[in-house]
Write a structure and sequence with these properties.
The complex is a heterotrimer of chains A (456), B (275) and C (462). Chain A is mostly helical and 456 residues long. Chain A contains 19 helices and three strands. In chain A, helix 11 packs antiparallel against helix 16 and helix 16 packs antiparallel against helix 19. About 2% of the residues of chain A have low confidence. With 462 residues, chain C is mostly helical. Classes of the chains: A mainly alpha (456), B alpha/beta (275), C mainly alpha (462).
């Protein structure tokens, strides 16, 4: 009667022979069970590996395209600053200088460099080597230094986006640069690539003359948006993101901390505060685009605040971030042990003095960490900002919180929609910059958490 | 696990084996068992024999290592990452920390009942059937029915639950839950049942029930019970071991230990001077 | 005069008020500060609040009312033949006045009276701004003086300051409620307007979605154009694909991380999941459109398995959305699994169960309610996700369950309908709010149920 299973009909009860768990049958079964165990473990490891692989593929696919955008092909031309073209009157009037025909200077420099090119179509193609921003570059130079007039200078121009892409190898023609120099023609048919054999020939010639160089793409970090990829920068979006985040921070943090302090420290426990609590938890899970609808209907249509402005974007993001700040602050306040409060109350401090002098300073690192994480979320948010018009095409750098502006994620969204190959590169680069900011912010949060981690 | 034979305390061996009055076969033999939690040493070299078909009670003040020792016997300590066990523990002469021993197999042979009743969130039937099922016993429905019924009968729970086997085990009262857990352990047909303060969460009536049950189970199983309740140890056990600060101070027939303790620490504990 | 000047004046007044109050209190106490009911700094804040709050409230009221008030007054000056018209013409008139006042060319011939009204509007505003500046200044000074005079040994400055603070705190905690109320009201209001064009039943059960048709004036709200069922099915299809990716991977990751992974793997894999969670959705959208969609087309399309794959297939968007949700599912499941008490694991191990048997047969069934709650939260998040689908799923409102076809979702339609020019009197624009209302209600219901389920589950093991 030792073994319940041995009471079964048909089994012979035996005493203290090796137990059933030492039988070969059990061992075989055990082996199968351990195989199942290993399989299960492998599934788990595979799941993690898949997630990690996806992250790697994501980052790789972006960085492998984006890193090219940090460099820009430049072409050197001999520009003759002809006084007859630039300043026929000789007055050096800045307004006149700015309006002069600089494109003409570039064109003549190109025709001079390639005297054999003739015919309207070929010349048009030739002019397309240089970015259309070249004339503004020359204008700036001359206005800044009118003494250039009458001289001949070597000037580096941005190449047009097609040439730039070709130089970087993202618009391949099938053979390497060296092979082309050795006279081997492209293998990709001419009509299936955006630049034809003549363009390639001119480029190769410029390259051979040392008139092609790669320089850091400062445009990307100093200029606003543009339809021309080589002239498009994300500085406007960075500034827009900055203004928007300032508004978000200025609203979400004071309101969020105050609300959390009230709910955690002062609020009576009743149906009303329960409602607020449930409400905050639900608000945290409302889709972000709904906040955009709120912003559109209430702040733009009802209150008449300006469209596309960081002010409205910031308010909308503040409302969206508020639950994050409140929840993080409450957690930080909860972590301060009651003994601190009792000690302060015990020496005669008022409840507000307890909070302001003792609890909040102790909870500050936690609040700060939560705030940074909330701000990082806000920085990466796109959808609600589309609703309040921050998706506009804006060339100028915004000067204030009511100027029309866009933000980095929206800029990425807009660029990703553009057909030019060069914009794919720039979109990826913009993503790298955005991710850089996010890593910085999250890193700061992790650092603060580590540094101020306190065990009571 | 290699036993360190360097620091063998001969008196401890003498105590553990020579004093054995209740002569039975030694089911579990432990020699110089040391347990570390990280850097902290919880057991300082335990020598103890446990006899077949008897109830051995482990008593001592809290934190003395009696539960730690118990959890060594079916290697439940393996689930704690920072825990390290040294020394020799043999089950029927086989080192349970040896290479050939598998924890799953070991735990099937050495069952355990825990301090707090921990029925699975399944039906009463499935709670009992779970163990046999994973070990491939009672594959046929009628076989399993027999196992479930016998286990519940032996745990003294059958009459109370026979009509609601499909109801969740978590719906039972505390005492019933603990008997369900004992039935669950019995269903696997272990050779040894370890009980870690099985009555500490129960009221006196439920406790009496369980104690009765333990006495009945002795006939078929080897039982090791940890308790902080000395009356309980006196009531249910044949042998009692007194643990103190990670040492096994004294082991003897229960009657002997409660009437005539050899060590003054045992005496102090039993008479209630500390503990 | 720009109202923001008043803000600066108020700021200066508060600083002055604070120090004056503090000094006055110290002087009243005559060097024996303990005679004061409250310490001087509270008297400072007391004066500060009196100087700032009334003026600030006035300013806030004015800023909120200014344009409306000025517009009403300006329109009221117009002859009756302008104002005695129907609501739509009146709102057109208001828009004209505002546009002319802002110096925007309306491109229409405008009556001189309307120009005058616009001028009056501008004058009223600038006059009002100036008036408010001086009134605000006076109120600030009066408040300052009043508060200073009240300072005495007995003044319970601390209690009064703290009760004001209390009101402020309550107001701040009400912002969350107000936000919800704002969302509900704005969605309801605009959706109601939409439902005057398109009956709700047609919107909810219609099988044809093509809002562009309504652009033609004679065909406004033409039948069948606003049937949202294809959007709902599209949303469900993509959400389902996302869940097929996210739930197994997220759940298995959580299990592996909490039960199996060696410390080294855990410390490497945790940041991976955190980074995945922190990547902005627009980046996932770009990845979906540029990498995943071509990959899906290559793998399943003509060059691969030979299936008919749309370039903006639901599959690509769904997979990427699933990747985005993996960390969400994993961290929620991790919480849920860790809430299963150790005693249950011990019980299973004590019977000789292997680790995977314990997990599959004891822990997961025990954690099931929590996991269901987590999956519901994940579904709610997938339904509300906008950027991935906007960039990768396209606009074709196909009623299909084929993951290789292009579908569109509720959020995509909201985003496209409201980006760019909006006319708030056409069903095309307003339908976005109808969709928004449905989206809000569905996600809210999912969240509330899920939170309740998870809470119940936690209580069981606490």
């Amino acid at each position: 009667m030792t073994d319940i299973a041995q009471d079964l009909p048909g089994t012979v009860a035996k005493r203290r022979t090796p137990s059933r768990y030492q039988s070969d049958e059990f061992k075989a079964r055990l082996k199968a069970r351990y195989n199942a165990e290993r399989r299960f473990q492998v599934y788990g490891a595979l799941a993690i590996a898949t997630a990690a692989a996806m992250l790697v593929i994501l980052l790789f696919s972006i960085c492998s395209k984006g890193y090219l955008a940090f460099w820009q092909t430049e072409i050197k031309l001999e520009i003759t600053f002809d006084p007859a073209v630039l300043d026929p009157s000789g007055e050096r009037d800045p307004n006149g200088l700015r309006r002069a025909n600089y494109q003409g200077l570039i064109n003549s420099a190109l025709y001079e460099a390639f005297p054999e090119v003739s015919g309207r179509r070929d010349r048009r193609n030739l002019r397309a080597l240089i970015s259309s921003g070249g004339r503004f570059q020359l204008a700036d130079m001359v206005v800044a230094n009118p003494d250039l007039i009458g001289t001949t200078q070597e000037v580096w121009f941005l190449a047009s986006d097609d040439i730039d892409q070709f130089a970087k190898g993202t618009l391949p023609c099938g053979v390497t640069h060296e092979e082309r120099m050795a006279g081997i023609p492209c293998t990709v048919p001419e009509d299936s690539r955006p630049i034809n054999d003549r363009n390639i020939g001119w480029y190769d010639q410029l390259y051979a003359n040392g008139q092609v160089d790669f320089a850091f793409n400062s445009v990307l970090f100093t200029k606003g948006n543009s339809r021309e990829p080589e002239l498009a920068g994300m500085w406007g979006a960075i500034v827009g993101s900055f203004y928007t985040l300032v508004i978000t921070l200025a609203l979400a943090v004071p309101i969020g901390v105050a609300a959390a302090v009230y709910l955690e420290e002062f609020a009576p426990k009743n149906a009303w505060t329960d409602l607020i609590e449930i409400n905050i938890n639900n608000l945290a899970a409302v889709p972000s685009i709904v906040f955009g609808l709120l912003g559109l209907a209430v702040f733009l249509n009802f209150f008449g605040l300006p469209r596309s402005a960081p002010l409205v974007g910031g308010i909308v993001l503040a409302l969206m971030t508020l639950p994050t700040v409140i929840i993080a602050t409450r957690a930080a306040l909860k972590a301060v042990p009651p003994s601190i409060r009792e000690a302060a109350l015990g020496v005669g401090a008022s409840p507000y003095q307890v909070i302001l002098h003792h609890v909040l300073p102790l909870a500050a690192p936690g609040i700060l960490t939560g705030t940074i994480i909330g701000m990082a979320q806000a920085l990466g948010e796109t959808a609600p900002l589309l609703m309040v018009g921050m998706v506009a095409f804006i060339v100028d750098i915004p000067q204030g919180i009511t100027d029309a502006a866009t933000v980095m994620p929206v800029q990425i969204y807009m660029w990703s929609d553009l057909p030019e190959r060069a914009f794919v590169e720039r979109t990826s680069a913009a993503i790298m910059v955005l991710l850089g900011f996010l890593i910085l912010m999250n890193g700061l949060a992790v650092y603060l958490r580590k540094k101020f981690e306190r065990r009571w | 696990m290699t036993a360190s034979t360097m620091n063998v305390d001969p008196s401890a061996i003498a105590m553990s084996n020579a004093d054995a009055v209740g002569t039975g076969r030694v089911k579990i033999h432990s020699k110089d068992v040391k347990v570390f939690y990280g850097a902290k040493q919880a057991l300082k070299g335990i020598y103890l024999d446990i006899f077949e078909h008897s109830v051995t009670a482990l008593i001592g003040p809290s934190g003395c290592g009696k539960s730690t020792y118990l959890r060594c016997l079916n290697r439940m300590n393996d689930t704690i990452d920072i825990c390290r066990v040294e020394g020799l523990i043999e089950l029927d002469g086989e080192d349970i920390y040896g290479r050939t021993i598998d924890t799953v197999q070991l735990r099937a042979r050495v069952g355990m009942v825990f301090q707090k009743p921990n029925p699975f969130p399944k039906s009463i039937y499935d709670n009992i059937a779970y163990g046999p099922r994973i070990h491939g016993i009672g594959a046929r429905r009628d076989e399993m029915d027999v196992i479930v019924e016998k286990s519940l009968q032996r745990a003294g729970l059958w009459d109370e639950v026979r009509d609601r086997l499909k109801e969740p085990g978590t719906g039972l009262s505390g005492g019933q839950q603990q008997r369900l857990c004992i039935a669950r352990a019995i269903a696997v047909s272990p050779e040894v049942i370890l009980m870690d303060e099985p009555c500490s969460a129960l009221d006196p009536i439920a406790t009496a029930h369980i104690e009765e049950l333990i006495d009945e189970l002795r006939e078929n199983y080897t039982i090791v019970i940890v308790t902080h309740n000395m009356q309980q140890a006196a009531r249910v056990s044949q042998r009692t071991a007194f643990f103190h600060l990670g040492d096994m101070v004294e082991v003897n027939d229960t009657e002997e230990i409660f009437t005539n303790p050899k060590d003054e620490r045992t005496q102090g504990y039993i008479t209630g001077r500390y503990g | 005069m720009n109202p923001s000047y008043l803000l600066w004046v108020i700021l200066i007044l508060t600083i002055i008020g604070y120090f004056l109050g503090q000094n006055r209190a110290a002087r009243v106490a005559d060097g024996r500060l303990h005679r004061l009911h409250s310490v001087p700094s509270y008297h400072g804040i007391y004066v500060l609040l009196w100087a700032a709050l009334p003026a600030f409230l006035l300013l806030a009221l004015w800023v909120a009312m200014e344009s409306w008030l000025a517009l009403e007054l300006a329109i009221a000056q117009l002859p009756d033949r302008f104002t005695n018209v129907d609501a739509r013409a009146l709102s057109l008139l208001q828009a004209d006045v505002l546009n002319i006042a802002a110096g925007i060319n309306t491109g229409r011939e405008t009556a001189p009276e309307v120009k005058e009204a616009a001028e009056a509007y501008n004058n009223l505003r600038s006059m009002g701004d100036t008036a408010i500046f001086f009134v605000g200044l006076l109120m600030g000074l009066a408040g300052l003086r009043f508060a200073l005079n009240r300072i005495s040994l007995e003044l319970r400055a601390r209690n009064q300051v703290e009760s004001v603070l209390n009101v402020l705190l309550i107001l701040c905690s009400l912002v969350a409620i107000l936000t919800t109320v704002g969302i509900v009201l704005s969605l309801l209001f605009e959706a109601m307007r939409f439902f005057t064009w398109v009956p709700p039943a047609e919107f909810l059960f219609g099988l044809q979605w093509s809002p562009q048709i309504a652009l033609r004036a004679d065909q406004v709200g033409s039948s069948g154009a606003f049937g949202a069922v294809p959007l709902f099915t599209g949303t469900l299809l993509i959400t389902a694909i996302a869940m097929v990716v996210a739930v197994p991977i997220g759940l298995m990751s959580a299990i592996y991380m909490s039960e199996y992974a060696p410390v080294a793997v855990r410390s490497a894999a945790k940041p991976v999941l955190e980074v995945l969670a922190g990547v902005p959705t627009v980046v996932y959208g770009f990845f979906a459109a540029l990498t995943m969609a071509p990959f899906v087309r290559e793998t399943f399309g003509a060059n691969g398995l030979g299936l008919d794959v749309a370039s903006e297939s639901a599959l690509a968007a769904g997979i990427v959305m699933g990747i985005m949700i993996i960390p969400f599912v994993s961290s929620l499941s991790d919480d849920v699994i860790n809430a299963v008490p150790q005693s249950l694991r011990d019980g299973a191990y004590g019977l000789g169960a292997t680790k995977s048997e314990t997990i599959r047969q004891v822990i997961l069934p025990a954690a099931l309610p929590g996991i269901v709650g987590a999956v519901m939260l994940a579904i709610s998040r997938a339904i509300g996700e906008t950027m991935i689908v906007t960039m990768a799923a396209g606009l074709a409102a196909n009623l299909t369950a084929n993951p290789f076809e292009a579908v569109t979702t509720v959020t995509v339609q909201i985003a496209t309908l409201l980006v760019g020019d909006q006319e708030f009197d056409s069903p095309k624009t307003l339908s976005a709010f109808g969709l928004g209302l449905v989206l809000f209600i569905v996600t809210l219901a999912l969240n509330m149920i899920a939170l309740r389920v998870v809470q119940k589950y936690r209580e069981k093991y606490d």
